[in-house]
Design brief:
- The chain is α+β, with helices and mostly antiparallel strands.
- Helices cover 60% and strands 7% of the residues.
- It has two domains: 2-171, Beta Polymerase, domain 2, CATH 3.30.460.10; 176-321, Four Helix Bundle (Hemerythrin (Met), subunit A), CATH 1.20.120.
- It is built from twelve helices and six strands.
- The longest helix is centred in the N-terminal third of the chain and has 27 residues, at 17-43.
- The chain is globular.
- The termini are far apart.
- The model has no long low-confidence stretch (mean pLDDT 94).
Length: 324
């Protein structure tokens, strides 16, 4: 189990959440590259150029020990489904199943290259993104939150670069789309009550805990994506997006700085929690009990949640006229 040991050791040596995310994601990239090589060796050379595209947390280089796989294939427009479809179907299945065997769980929502819906020529991808942006329905917004985080891992990288350029150009400053994206992002709110008390999960398996992923980090990831799309910024990593957004004026310099501090701190709280579970030979999760934290860390946690709450309110005012 090299990955859990790596994460545990990096946390123990004081590495940052940003650095750990890059290290863990680099391992996923290396596994993907090797599986792509093995699949091509087995099937023969690809009939037309393609790019293997990481999505979600791997694309953002924010993976942890508990990340599943999200990926897709962008194929050259010379693609002929009759002549080439079987090769790419077999290829995608080999790589996705190989990743599952290596410990990267299959995506529960089937957002993977082995799904024919996410294996398309470049022109079809451009049309799909254009449709999501022009008609931002709930399902499109849910997919957009994964697919707008894209990065080439193997194959012909310029295919992904061209797709990203096109998507950023269409999304940039599109107030209708950005307003809907903001509304969708507000489904994840920081667990901070009116009197700065921590609002814990009331019942179920994780009762009396804090969901550090969905209530802590996802709201920041969503805001960073929103700013990047609004300003047409190419970075994909959330911290890099916030830095670029602050420099471009998509968000105030102080707002970007505060969100970066919150992202760094919340990411480290989650990783320390996962490292404690790994040291106890327990499966890592995202649910932190407040009593695990020192009074100092609990205070900083409340400060971080307050920053996110304030920046979400500012985004609502800017993109939706204050309406959730």
């Amino acid at each position: 189990r090299p990955l859990p040991h790596l994460v545990h050791d990096l946390v123990q040596t004081g590495a940052s959440a940003y650095g750990i995310g890059h290290a863990v994601s680099a391992l996923a990239d290396a596994a993907t590259l090797r599986l792509v090589e093995l699949a091509e060796r087995r099937l023969g050379p690809p009939p037309v150029p393609y790019a293997w595209m990481a999505l979600g947390s791997q694309a953002r280089q924010e993976q942890t020990v508990r990340s599943d796989q999200d990926n897709a294939l962008v194929i050259d427009d010379a693609y002929d489904p009759v002549a080439h479809g079987d090769w790419f179907a077999r290829f995608a299945a080999l790589v996705c199943e190989g990743l599952a065997d290596a410990g990267y769980e299959l995506c529960p929502g089937d957002m993977m290259a082995r799904n024919p819906a996410w294996r398309m020529p470049l022109a079809a991808w451009k049309e799909t993104f254009g449709r999501w942006i022009r008609t931002p329905e709930p399902e499109a917004l849910m997919k957009a939150s994964v697919f707008f985080d894209m990065r080439a891992v193997a194959g012909h990288a310029p295919l992904v670069a061209e797709l990203q350029r096109t998507v950023l150009a269409v999304a940039r400053g599109n107030r209708l789309f950005l307003g809907h994206m903001t509304g969708a992002a507000m489904t994840h709110r920081p667990p901070l009550g009116f009197f700065r008390n921590l609002v814990l999960i009331p019942g179920g398996e994780h009762r009396h805990s804090l969901d550090m992923k969905h209530a802590g980090l996802v709201p920041i990831v969503d805001l960073a994506r929103l700013y990047a799309l609004d300003a047409g910024l190419p970075p994909v990593n959330s911290r890099d997006r916030l830095v670029a957004a602050g420099e471009a004026g998509a968000v105030s310099a102080s707002g970007a700085h505060d969100l970066i501090d919150a992202l760094d701190f919340l990411g480290l709280v989650r990783l320390r929690h996962q490292a404690r579970l790994l040291a106890a030979d327990r499966p890592p999760d995202n649910y932190v009990l407040p009593e695990e934290l020192s009074p100092f860390d609990r205070g900083h946690l409340k400060d971080a949640f307050a920053v996110v709450k304030s920046m979400q309110a500012a985004a609502l005012a800017a993109y939706r006229g204050g309406r959730a």
